């Protein structure tokens, strides 16, 4: 059942991984999904992982929605604003914003041996800067750009993709601090948006079988893991829920939402 026909979504950082899964989950329900990313077909590749923003858009369309690719580096505020303006100019509305883009993972592909950054004092300050600029700041700037349209509509959903790392002390100082910041940002946004009919939540996926996780599958127990599309199912269920405002300001987990909406991971190999 396509529950999001006529709805317009923007998913940032959707060339691959969780962002791509969310875009596909929304597309499966018939939404028009604008997807942003730095990796373009035929362009320079910022990471060694597969996936481009154009490929994601094409797969969204194949899944039943309408995918539109926007090349965007969210470390650049003006590119971010232009991306949101493009969506509103094209579609005339914006119903769902998913802030998924993030930074600070460069050591996975820049050749740095993991053990050389075993403590925060061994890491270059750029790791902190990247997590806050490409992550926290990008979430904030995109939300600032999107909020006026949602407030004028009297409706909308903002989802910050976060992590249990915000609540733990063993996931790295920069990562944990940045995720905690994005969670608190959502709580404060929800407070200011509450009377305007706009919902803001943080979402914690579980262990997701992204391209980078699968590269290290021999070292990780994937028995209890989620497909990227499972995260998309959770976001789509929220977007289709007329009572979604009950969750505003909260931290939600994909496992919690699957129980609430009686969803199973239809893309899991064991499903």
Automatic annotation (TrEMBL):
This is SDR family NAD(P)-dependent oxidoreductase. Pfam families: adh_short. InterPro entries: NAD(P)-bd_dom_sf, Sc_DH/Rdtase_CS, SDR_fam. SUPFAM superfamilies: NAD(P)-binding Rossmann-fold domains (SSF51735). Belongs to the short-chain dehydrogenases/reductases (SDR) family.
């Amino acid at each position: 059942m396509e529950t999001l026909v006529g709805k317009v979504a923007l998913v940032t950082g959707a060339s691959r991984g969780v962002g791509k899964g969310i875009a596909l989950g929304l597309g499966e329900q018939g939404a028009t999904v604008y997807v942003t990313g730095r990796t373009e077909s035929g362009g320079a590749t910022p990471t060694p992982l597969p996936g481009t923003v154009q490929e994601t858009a094409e797969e969204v369309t194949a899944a039943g929605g309408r995918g539109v690719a926007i090349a965007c580096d969210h470390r650049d505020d003006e590119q971010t604003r232009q991306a949101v303006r493009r969506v509103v100019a094209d579609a005339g509305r914006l119903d769902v914003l998913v802030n998924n883009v993030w930074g600070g993972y460069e050591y996975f592909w820049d050749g740095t041996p993991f053990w050389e950054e075993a403590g925060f004092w061994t890491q270059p300050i750029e790791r902190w800067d990247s997590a806050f600029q490409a992550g926290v700041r990008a979430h904030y700037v995109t939300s600032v750009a999107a909020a006026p349209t949602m407030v004028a509509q009297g409706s909308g959903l903002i989802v910050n993709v976060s992590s249990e790392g915000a609540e733990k002390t063993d996931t790295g100082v920069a990562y944990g601090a940045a995720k905690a910041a994005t969670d608190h940002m959502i709580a404060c946004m929800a407070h200011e948006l509450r009377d305007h009919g706009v919902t803001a939540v943080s979402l914690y996926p579980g262990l997701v079988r992204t391209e980078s996780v699968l590269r290290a599958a021999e070292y990780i127990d994937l028995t209890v893991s989620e497909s990227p599309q499972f995260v998309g199912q959770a976001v789509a269920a929220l977007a289709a829920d007329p009572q979604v405002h009950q969750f505003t300001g909260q931290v939600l987990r994909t496992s919690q939402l699957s129980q609430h909406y009686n969803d199973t991971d239809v893309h899991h190999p064991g499903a």
